[in-house]
Amino acid sequence: MKDFMPLNVAILTVSDTRTTENDGSGDYLEVALTNAGHRCAERRIVADDVYRIRADVSCWIADPAINVIITTGGTGFTGRDTTPDALEPLFDQPIPGFGELFRQLSRKEVGSSTLQSRCVAGFVNHTLIFALPGSTNACRTGWEQILIEQLDSRHQPCNFANLVNGGSGHHG
């Protein structure tokens, strides 16, 4: 069996109202990923604005020390929900199965309202990006039912952790 490779993960909370004091989803993700053996490399809160989101994410994409970016918030259908619009043009390769699987899993919790989730994921410059909804329950679903396995280099038959080469940020 392969060894576990801890990844450097950046967390971006997209919100016009959250602060470091009330960012429950960001708090959950930081605890969950560190409990799984990964490192929280950086964490920020950004207003729900396409260009601000893109600017923060682009800095992390350019940083070879960041392997994974997880965003929370801004994935719905209101006028201020712009996270997918900010991220999708950056993707070298979209990961459509992530949003599909997330909506399938969250249907058990929110029923047909899962249609309003615009969760997306992609691969950019050897960096994985996953956009989750802003609710802590949705982040828990995404982490516990998808990301914990897919970011574990030991998960079989395949996982995304091996694509980022376990911390170097470059293909070997």
TrEMBL record:
PROSITE patterns given in the database record: MOCF_BIOSYNTHESIS_1
Domain of life: Bacteria
Domain MoaB/Mog: start-end pairs: 10-154
UniProt cross-references to CDD domains, sorted A to Z: MogA_MoaB
SUPFAM superfamilies: Molybdenum cofactor biosynthesis proteins
Assigned keywords, A-Z: Molybdenum cofactor biosynthesis
Pfam families: MoCF_biosynth (PF00994)
Annotated SMART domains: MoCF_biosynth (SM00852)
Biological process, per Gene Ontology: Mo-molybdopterin cofactor biosynthetic process
Cellular component, GO annotation: cytosol
Regions that span the bilayer: none
This protein's pathway: Cofactor biosynthesis; molybdopterin biosynthesis
Role noted for this protein: May be involved in the biosynthesis of molybdopterin.
Family per record: Belongs to the MoaB/Mog family.
Name used for this protein in its record: Molybdenum cofactor biosynthesis protein B
Species whose genome carries this gene: Larsenimonas rhizosphaerae
